[in-house]
Amino acid sequence: MKQVMNSSRKKDFDQQRLAVLRMEMDYELAVLFEAIQEKNEDIQNNSKKKLEKIREELLRLKAL
User: Fold this and answer.
1) Buried-exposed string 11-27: b where 16+ CB fall within 10 A, e elsewhere
2) Helix-, strand-, coil-residue percentages of the chain, each rounded to 5
3) Binning pLDDT at 50, 70 and 90, where does residue 11 land?
4) How far is Cα 13 from Cα 32, in angstroms, rounded to an integer?
5) For 22-31, what is each residue's pLDDT tens digit?
6) How far lies 47's CA from each of 18, 40, 60, in Å?
7) What is the residue extent of each domain of the chain?
8) Rounded to whole angstroms, what are the CA distances from 15 to 18, 20, 25, 30, 62?
9) Alpha-carbon distance 62 to 58, whole Å?
10) Rounded to two decimals, what is the model's pTM?
């Protein structure tokens, strides 16, 4: 019974984390879009790095 509860909690946490990551990804894509329009390479590079980290975590969570 304890294992079932722990499994359920982990699943709920993973679903919440996926939702947060998707929101972070949407925001960061908007930041990147603005930086591209403004031709600001520093912000573009920072945004791309953040998006790569988000991508890696999304892949890790979906692989579970």
Assistant:
1) eeeeeeeeeebeebbee
2) 95, 0, 5
3) confident
4) 28
5) 999 999 999 9
6) 19, 11, 20
7) 3-61
8) 5, 9, 15, 23, 10
9) 6
10) 0.80
